[in-house]
Specification:
Length: 110
C-alpha cells in the first residue's frame, strides 16, 4: 500500500507555515535532530519522501520539543521532510552524504 506525495520541482521555495523548526545536521550521515522552538501543542506527523514522491518514512510522535530520526539505512541523496502538528506545517529538503574524514595537521616537535 504505497502512498505518493507529488513534488513540484519548478519552485525553489519550501512551505513553512507556523512551525519554528531547526533540522540538523543537514547534510546528514545517519540521523537528523529536529528541534522545535517550543513543545508542539499537538502530536507530530513526520513524513520523509524521495524526490519521486515515494513515502519512505511515515511516523507519528507525541508532542515534544526535540525528535531524533534515525536515517542510517537511507541511501545517499536528497529527500523531502514534511512535518505537521495540528494545522502547522514545515517542509524542507534534506541531503544524505558520505562520512567525511576530518584530517587535522599535527605539528611534530624535535
Amino acid at each position: 500500500n504505497n502512498k505518493v506525495f507529488h513534488i513540484n520541482n519548478s519552485e525553489t521555495d519550501f512551505i513553512d507555515t507556523s512551525l519554528d523548526v531547526l533540522i540538523s545536521p543537514n547534510p546528514f550521515i545517519d540521523h537528523i535532530k529536529i528541534n522545535f522552538s517550543k513543545a508542539t501543542a499537538n502530536d507530530i506527523q513526520i513524513n520523509i519522501y524521495d524526490l519521486n514522491g515515494k513515502v519512505l518514512l511515515s511516523k507519528k510522535h507525541k508532542s515534544t520539543d526535540v525528535l531524533f530520526v534515525p536515517m542510517r539505512y537511507f541511501g545517499l541523496g536528497s529527500y523531502i521532510i514534511h512535518i505537521q502538528s495540528g494545522k502547522n506545517k514545515f517542509t524542507k529538503k534534506l541531503l544524505k552524504t558520505k562520512l567525511k574524514w576530518l584530517w587535522t595537521a599535527h605539528k611534530v616537535f624535535f
